C-alpha cells in the first residue's frame, strides 16, 4: 500500500510539473515585452533582428516553439540563456548549490528554534513563560521575511557592522573548490577559516528566512505536543515518576514529530521559493537572484529552466517527506 501511494503521488506530481511548464511557457510569451529588444545593439538592421529571432526560435508559432523546446529538453538540452549566452542548465547548476545550502541552513535554524519554542511553551504551560514565548512566536510569525532582512541589514550591517551584507564569501578568500557547495566541501576539506567566512555571509539571509518558519513549526509542534501529553502512556510515565521535561523529550516529542515533518517538507519547498526576495536583498548569488535577473531581462529559456528545476526540487522534497512519514508512522507502514 505505501509503495502504491508513493508511485501514485509521483505520477500526479509529474503531470502537475508538465502542466506548470506549459502554463509558464505560454505566460512568458504573451506578456508585453520583446526579449530580442534586450539583445540588439544600437543601429541593428531588420535583418539582424530577424536572424536573432530565428536563432532562438522566436519566429516560429507558439505550439512549434513549445514542441521544439520540449523535444530538446527530453534530450537534456534546455537551451541557451539569452542574457548570459551560456547553456541554461550550466548556469542553473552553478547557482543551485548556493541556494540549497542557504535553504538547508535556514531549515536547520528554524527546526532548532521552533522545537525549542514548542518545548519551553509546553513545559511551562499556564505560566508567564508560556505567554512570553507565545507572544514572541506571534511576532516572528507576523513579520514578513523581507522586513527581517532589511532589519538585519540596518542593525548588523550598518549600525553595528558585525556581519557582511552581500555576497557568498570574501573576495580575498581563495575558493579553489571542485564544486559550488562551499559550505559542504569546505567542511570536508577542513578549511575552517573559509567555512567561517561562508557562514558569516549566510547567517543574516538564513535568519531572515528561518524566523517566520520557526514560528510556524513552533506553533504546530506545540499543538501536537499538547495532544500527545494527554495520552495514556504519558499518564503512565508520570505515575512512574518521570519528570516533565524527560517525558517531553523521550516520549512526547517523537510521537508529535509526524505532523511537523509533513509541515517541514511543504515549508522547505516554500523556503527554496522564498530565496528569491532574500537573495536579492543580500545580493546572494543563488538561483533566486538569478530568477529575478531572468525575468527582468525576459530571458525565456532561463525562466523555463528555472521553473522546471524548482518543480523537480518540490517533487523530490515532497516524495522524501511522504516516504519518511510512512516510515515513522506504523499505521501507514503496515496499512
Sum up the structure in keywords.
335 residues, 2 domains, 13 helices, mainly alpha, globular, MetI-like fold
Describe what is shown at a glance:
75% of the residues lie in helices and 0% in strands.
SSE layout:
Elements: H1 2-30, H2 46-55, H3 62-74, H4 88-123, H5 128-142, H6 145-159, H7 182-189, H8 192-228, H9 232-239, H10 244-281, H11 287-296, H12 300-328, H13 330-333
The CATH homologous superfamily of the largest domain corresponds to MetI-like
Tally the helices: 13
Structural class: mainly alpha
> Which percent band covers the strand fraction?
under 5%
Question: In one word, what is the shape?
Answer: globular
How far apart are the first and last residues' alpha carbons, in Å? 6 Å
Main sheet characteristics: none
* CATH class placement of the largest domain: Mainly Alpha
N to C succession of SSEs: HHHHHHHHHHHHH
Report the CATH topology name of the largest domain.
Answer: MetI-like fold
Task: Please characterize this protein's 3D structure.
With 335 residues, the chain is mostly helical. It folds into 2 domains: 2-74, no CATH class; 91-330, Orthogonal Bundle (MetI-like fold). The protein is built from 13 helices and no strands. The protein has helices at 2-30, 46-55, 62-74, 88-123, 128-142, 145-159, 182-189, 192-228, 232-239, 244-281, 287-296, 300-328, 330-333. The longest helix has 38 residues, at 244-281. The chain is globular and about 85 Å long. It starts with a helix and ends with a helix.
Amino acid at each position: 500500500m505505501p509503495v502504491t501511494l508513493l508511485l501514485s503521488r509521483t505520477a500526479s506530481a509529474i503531470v502537475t510539473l508538465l502542466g506548470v511548464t506549459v502554463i509558464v511557457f505560454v505566460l512568458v510569451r504573451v506578456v508585453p515585452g520583446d526579449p530580442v529588444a534586450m539583445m540588439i545593439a544600437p543601429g541593428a538592421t531588420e535583418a539582424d533582428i530577424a536572424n536573432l529571432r530565428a536563432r532562438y526560435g522566436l519566429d516560429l508559432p507558439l505550439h512549434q516553439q513549445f514542441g521544439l523546446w520540449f523535444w530538446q529538453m527530453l534530450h537534456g538540452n534546455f537551451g541557451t540563456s539569452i542574457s548570459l549566452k551560456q547553456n541554461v542548465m550550466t548556469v542553473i547548476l552553478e547557482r543551485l548549490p548556493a541556494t540549497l545550502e542557504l535553504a538547508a541552513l535556514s531549515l536547520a535554524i528554524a527546526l532548532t528554534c521552533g522545537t525549542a519554542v514548542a518545548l519551553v511553551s509546553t513545559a511551562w504551560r499556564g505560566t508567564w513563560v508560556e505567554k512570553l514565548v507565545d507572544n514572541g512566536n506571534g511576532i516572528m510569525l507576523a513579520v514578513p521575511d523581507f522586513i527581517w532582512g532589511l532589519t538585519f541589514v540596518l542593525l548588523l550591517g550598518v549600525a553595528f557592522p558585525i556581519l557582511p551584507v552581500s555576497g557568498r564569501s570574501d573576495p580575498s578568500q581563495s575558493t579553489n573548490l571542485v564544486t559550488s557547495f562551499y559550505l559542504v566541501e569546505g567542511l570536508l576539506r577542513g578549511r575552517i577559516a573559509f567555512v567561517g567566512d561562508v557562514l558569516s555571509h549566510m547567517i543574516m539571509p538564513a535568519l531572515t528566512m528561518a524566523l517566520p518558519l520557526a514560528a510556524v513549526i513552533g506553533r504546530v509542534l506545540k499543538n501536537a505536543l499538547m495532544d500527545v501529553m494527554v495520552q495514556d502512556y504519558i499518564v503512565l510515565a508520570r505515575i512512574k515518576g518521570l519528570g516533565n521535561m524527560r517525558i517531553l523529550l523521550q516520549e512526547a516529542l517523537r510521537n508529535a514529530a509526524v505532523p511537523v515533518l509533513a509541515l517541514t517538507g511543504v515549508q522547505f519547498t516554500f523556503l527554496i521559493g522564498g530565496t528569491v526576495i532574500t537573495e536579492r536583498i543580500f545580493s546572494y548569488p543563488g538561483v533566486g537572484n538569478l530568477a529575478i535577473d531572468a525575468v527582468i531581462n525576459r530571458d525565456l529559456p532561463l525562466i523555463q529552466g528555472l521553473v522546471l528545476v524548482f518543480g523537480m526540487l518540490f517533487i523530490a522534497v515532497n516524495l522524501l517527506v511522504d516516504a519518511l512519514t510512512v516510515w515513522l508512522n506504523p499505521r501507514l507502514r503496515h496499512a
